[in-house]
UniProtKB/TrEMBL annotation:
One of its GO terms (biological process) is regulation of DNA-templated transcription. Its main location: membrane. Gene3D superfamilies: 1.10.8.60, 3.30.230.10, P-loop containing nucleotide triphosphate hydrolases. InterPro entries: AAA+_ATPase, Lon_arc, Lon_proteolytic, Lon_Prtase, Mg_chelatse_chII-like_cat_dom, P-loop_NTPase, Ribosomal_Su5_D2-typ_SF, Ribsml_uS5_D2-typ_fold_subgr. This is Archaeal Lon protease. The keyword Nucleus does not apply. ATP-dependent serine protease that mediates the selective degradation of mutant and abnormal proteins as well as certain short-lived regulatory proteins. Degrades polypeptides processively. The lineage of its organism: Archaea, Methanobacteriati, Methanobacteriota, Methanomada group, Methanococci. The active site is at S550, K593. Belongs to the peptidase S16 family. Archaeal LonB subfamily. Signal peptide: none annotated. It holds the Pfam family Mg_chelatase.
Length: 645
């Protein structure tokens, strides 16, 4: 199969990708088209999809070309003091740039109360004059002089106190403020159509705030309210786009405010913290006419209130995989080249690019598909770059932050990222936390040799296949069935936690009993009184959550084997869902399951025939596709041992 339509040895030979982000988005053409049209027509959008499929990237890309949509008049938002009601500062939006009014403001500055220093200096001067006068006077005039000085002193004290009281009274009046505190302040200058991003949980950033002033929030000591206003993202997004991500964290109260803003196209700001001096301040409604784009994962939509959801015109689900066609593999190659250029990485060899395509298939769960969870692929490419530069796994592990990996490699050193480097990242599982946990668990577990592949045939024992963790690591599960004679017939499920698994194993038990009772199985018949049998099915040493229906076929065979006492071969592991008519149906995670069977050393792996289209790497183990239970039975039971008996 031709992997790419171009021939190359390393990515250096490939053309440079477009610098426009909108051209760099791959596999989401439909979503890009809808978002562009929504922005053109001023509609609100909700983007839903798996992590790392390009939700933020699409919004950022549209933001880059926002000016191409419409004419835009720059504006400035200013805040002014309200002299009548200082707690209600005035916020105004003016078109263009704000020009400060240069006319001198007529502000009456009150007589200030004399400072302590002034009073102190007066006292010293007064004492010096007094001693000089008294020194040169005859004793007879001394008394009169003291009386005059006392009167003058009292007068000075009286005037000082009067001025002090007058000053103090005036200074509590608004027009006693320092002129600088009366000047309007510029809160925001918007020169081009804005795209403002805010996380849904960050209430202050979203809705704005009035800061606390520890000095009471009033001049002359405190900062006046209009200087403490912080605009919210909803105001800064006026005439542009407000992008709110992580909608699952959006408090209901914030949703109400956003709804009001969408309806009224304006919203006032008040202090958010009830214990702060900002809490008593409230502005007039401030214009906020924006296009709202929100994003989150599929399940997050339940966190949104119905009235807000109703206001969203376009709700788009982004794809998490695309068909594995030549055209799409070329797109994946374009993505690899983009990641290398955008992150300043080293070039990749052709084989390494093919390895990335294989990984994209594996992450999509099928040979026919390619994953679009491209953040994961991007992280893997960056990690492979660092491995190529000689960084070790532990160093790389320490550099992962919130799903995002930043390359730590030295970009001046030129090396090539090879297939070997990519494989090392995949095998170590460093690109996924859940994969690392699963790997660790399996490494420990395998030491106990609980799974014994290719052992002698055994009654009631079969090996099923499971996938551990959300990033998929295949594992083998030992299923054991024991039958007990009892007056209380029934089926008991041990170590099976998930509801779906419980239902499907109950179904397997019912089906096995029915098939045995009808004698329709291609197996030697046996007279059993099923009304006196208690069936115990155990997923032995299985401690992680077991769910899904992919072990139904395995459980059914295990029960039939235990009831009829016919041994099952032990050289295979099996996965497949079973319906009540005995058809084996497709399951998920088939490649991870096949890999697990290979790694444990089983000779054969039995899978539903429908899953054959998903198999990526059939080498290293015999893969047996089956469609029905009847087809399956001769493959798994050790009929030779019965005929010998
Ligand atoms: N469709 C895409 N085309 C090209 N690159 C992509 C695409 N999707 C994701 N990427 C790569 O993955 C990175 C992360 O994507 P982005 O942040 O847009 O994902 P997201 O869907 O917003 O994820 P989350 O839900 O976790 O916020 C991008 O910077 C880009 O490198």
């Amino acid at each position: 199969m031709e992997v790419f339509s171009v021939k190359f040895k390393t990515t250096e030979e490939l053309p440079e990708p477009s610098p426009r982000l909108i051209d760099q988005v791959i596999g989401q053409d439909e979503a890009v088209k809808v978002v562009l049209s929504a922005v053109k027509n001023k509609r609100h959008v909700l983007l839903l999809g798996d992590p790392g499929v390009g939700k933020s990237m699409i919004v950022k890309a549209v933001g880059e070309i926002l000016d191409e949509f419409d004419n835009f008049t720059p504006y400035t938002i200013i805040a002014k003091p309200n002299l009548k009601n200082p707690e209600k500062p005035i916020v105004e939006l003016i078109e263009g740039e704000y020009k400060e009014d240069t006319k001198e403001e007529k502000i009456s500055i009150p007589t200030q109360p004399p400072s302590l220093m002034t009073l102190f200096l007066i006292m010293i001067a007064f004492t010096v004059i007094l001693s000089w006068l008294m020194g040169g006077l005859p004793e007879s005039k001394m008394l009169a002089t003291i009386a005059i000085v006392a009167i003058v002193g009292s007068l000075i004290a009286f005037v000082s106190i009067f001025l002090g009281v007058l000053g103090a009274t005036k200074s509590s009046m608004p027009n006693a403020i320092n002129p600088a505190d009366l000047k309007p302040v510029v809160l925001y200058e918007c020169k081009k159509r804005p795209l403002v991003r805010a996380s849904a949980y960050n209430v202050t950033k979203l809705l704005g705030d009035v800061k606390h002033c520890p000095l009471g929030g009033r001049p002359p000591l405190g900062t006046p309210p209009h200087k403490r206003i912080v605009l919210g993202a909803i105001h800064e997004a006026h005439k542009g786009i407000l992008y709110v991500d992580e909608i699952k964290t959006m408090p209901l109260e914030v949703q109400d405010y956003i709804l009001t803003a969408l309806q009224d196209k304006q919203l006032q700001i008040s202090g958010r913290n009830p214990n702060s001096s900002g809490a008593t301040v409230e502005t007039n409604p401030i214009p906020c006419d924006f296009i709202l784009i929100m994003s989150g994962n599929m399940d997050d939509v339940h966190n949104l209130r119905a009235p807000l959801l109703d206001r969203i015109d376009y709700k788009i689900v982004l794809k998490n995989k695309m068909d594995n066609t030549l055209e799409n593999r070329d797109k994946l190659l374009q993505f690899i080249v983009q990641e290398i250029r955008n992150n300043n990485l080293n070039p990749m060899t052709y084989d390494a690019c093919c390895e990335i395509v294989k990984l994209a298939q594996l992450l999509a769960g099928s040979r026919d598909k390619l994953t679009l969870r491209l953040r994961k692929l991007s992280n893997i490419i960056k990690m492979a770059n660092d491995i190529a530069l000689g960084k070790d796994i532990e160093e790389i592990k320490g550099n992962i932050e919130k799903d995002e990996y930043k390359s730590i490699g030295n970009s001046n050193k030129k090396v090539y990222i090879t297939a070997e480097h990519v494989r090392k990242v995949i095998e170590s599982g460093i690109y996924s936390l859940s994969k690392q946990v699963a790997l660790e668990y399996l490494r420990d577990f395998k030491r106990y040799k609980h799974i014994v592949p290719n052992d002698e045939p055994k009654v009631g024992i079969i090996y099923g296949l499971a996938v551990l963790g959300e990033d998929g690591l295949g594992d083998v599960t030992k299923i054991i069935t024991q039958i007990v004679d009892s007056k209380n017939p029934g089926t008991h499920l041990l170590n099976i936690s998930g509801d779906l698994a419980k239902h499907s194993i109950t179904l397997a038990s019912a089906l096995s009993k029915k098939l045995i009772a009808e004698g329709k199985l291609p197996l030697p018949k046996k007279d059993i009184d099923l009304t006196s049998k208690e069936i115990y099915i155990q997923f032995s040493q299985s401690y992680s959550k077991i769910d899904g229906d992919s072990a139904t076929a395995a459980a059914c065979l295990s029960i039939i084997s235990a009831l009829l006492e016919i041994p099952l071969k032990q050289d295979f592991a099996i996965t497949g869902s079973l319906d009540l008519s005995g058809n084996i149906l497709a399951v998920g995670g088939i490649n991870e399951k096949i890999n697990a069977a290979k790694e444990y050393g089983f000779k054969r792996v039995i899978i539903p025939e429908a899953n054959m289209i998903d198999v990526i790497d059939p080498e290293g183990i015999e893969i047996i596709p089956v469609k029905t239970l009847d087809e399956l039975i001769p493959l798994v039971f050790d009929l030779d041992s019965i005929s010998k008996n």
